[in-house]
Give the backbone structure.
Amino acid sequence: MRIAIATSGRFHVLDLARELHNLGHDVVFYSYVPTRRVKKFGLPAQCRRNLLFYLFPLIVLHRLAPHRMRPVLNRWIVNAIDSLVAKKLEPCDAFIGMSGLFVRACKIAKTRYGAMVLLERGSTHILRQKEILNTLPGAAQVSHFDVSRELAGYNLADLIVIPSIHVENSFLDYNCSKTKLFRNPYGVNLDMFAPTPIPTIPRPTAIFVGNWNYRKGCDLWAKVLDRMPELHLIHVGGRGDAPFPNSSRFTHVDPVRQWDLREYYAKAHVSVLASREEGLSLVLVQALSCGLPLVCSESTGGRDLLELVRDDSLIHIFPVDDLDALCVALHKAVSFAMTRVGTRTLPEGVRAQLTWRAYGERYSQRLAELTKDR
């Protein structure tokens, strides 16, 4: 099958492109991800169509511009990459693109080539996302531009690919047909995120990887550290719209390369994510593969991972914004983690289901079903 895949910088789509190529599909990958980074994901040169040359001035301008100008420049970049992919799109049987990013390219794929259109949506339905973020003072909001493009994409798509149960439910709540949804939990590179030894540090340590913002529930952590004086928290990621806790037991580390994350997971006993709105966070799959127990809200994709692992000592789920339940879950996870010895690992059968290969195989099977139905 000839498959066109288009994105900006969402790296899980790079993993998808590689796996579909390895499964025998004729894949063409459009993005402005630098070539040296694409090579690290193992995608052959013949599959790549790099758009960085055309978009470089806009990207540099976006990074150098004052914060107030960035929303406008972001809209320019979105429109530019959509138009570029639409112009350069080669014949394909299926077009896979990021929701909100591609509208014109979806139309061209359908009208010019008769291709199936699959949209990757990593978060909840855009209207649910907007509803949640509207309730959070200080949080970055969803723009009308984003809403209109997302909804246009949903209407064009033959299939909307989502990573988790709660994302699926958000689409059903907005009257999307279940037959138009394909739930496929993300994978992980098991060589990059291999089992880690139990930390030798005596103090209980949790790790949160991701941008520090209200959307990810980061404003709760000052209260958690007050309630749990024995707990230390490591944050690896960017500084977002939420304030850092004023605590000597909080350590911030600026974003690191994906292949360096394992050394930080190895320093912690548990991985935590208190998101109010998320799809299925890749950092949860990474931490789980490194052997860490997870403490995560209902809006993170943790329930999907629990379906795979079937071990509630490894995955503790709490209701969104429930501080008491979060602290209880942390106590349980830390108590379990502090009694472990040796190397933290998962049963081999569970690890096999977490691979990008398994993710790609599920995707390939669904594509075959769609083709048969046409």
